[in-house]
Every structure is written in structure tokens, then in C-alpha cells.
Amino acid sequence: MAHHKSAKKRIRRNANRYEINHARISRIRTFVKKVEAAIGAGDKDAAQAAFKVAMPEMQRGVTKGVVHKNTASRKISRLSARIKAI
């Protein structure tokens, strides 16, 4: 257990940030799964619609610092290529 006031505060802050960041990552994964489900079903229109919603969500994860810029770009690029291949 922490002994200093600042260390106790840091523990509380880390717990709060973990909850927020975990929720953001989970939200991104959910949107990506919707795109992948549409791709799996072979529905190009639904996949494009889901992709248009998922893309800003992934970029928001980058600006909030929960996903690296290159990771988001790579995932967006690969999803886009899979949609085009339908």
C-alpha cells in the first residue's frame, strides 16, 4: 500500500484511467467486429456502412492515446482492402 498522499492519488487516478481506456478499446473492438461480421456475410453495403462508423471511432482512439496511430492506420487499411475484395 502507498504511504504518500501523492502515491495514493496516483493509484486512484490510474484506476479511473484504466476504466475509461478499457471502455474505449472495447468500443473500438465492437465496431470492428460489426465490420468483420458484415464482411463474413458477404454484404458489401453493410460492411461499408459499418466501416464508415468504425473508422472515426478508431481515429478517436488514436487521439485519446489508447491506440497507436500506425496500428489504427494498419487496421483501417486492411479492413478497407477486405471490403473492396468482396
Q: How would you explain this protein's 3D organization?
A:
- This protein is mainly alpha-helical and 86 residues long.
- The protein has a single domain, classed as Ribosomal protein S20 (Methane Monooxygenase Hydroxylase, Chain G, domain 1), CATH 1.20.58.110.
- Helices cover 87% and strands 0% of the residues.
- It contains three helices and no strands.
- It has helices spanning 5-41, 44-64, 69-85.
- The longest helix has 37 residues, at 5-41.
- It is elongated, with a radius of gyration of 17 Å.
- It starts with a helix and ends with a helix.
- The mean pLDDT is 96.
- CATH class placement: Mainly Alpha
**What is the CATH superfamily classification?**
Ribosomal protein S20
Order of helices and strands: HHH
What is the CA-CA span between the terminal residues?
55 Å
Overall strand count: 0
Parts with pLDDT < 50 across at least 5 consecutive residues: none
User: What is the residue-averaged pLDDT?
Assistant: 96
Q: Helix segment count?
A: 3
Look at the helices and sheets and give the structural class. Answer: mainly alpha
Largest sheet: none
Round the Cα radius of gyration to an integer and report it: 17 Å
Number of domains as seen in the coordinates: 1
Helix residue percentage: over 70%
The backbone outline, from C-alpha atoms, is elongated
CATH topology: Methane Monooxygenase Hydroxylase, Chain G, domain 1
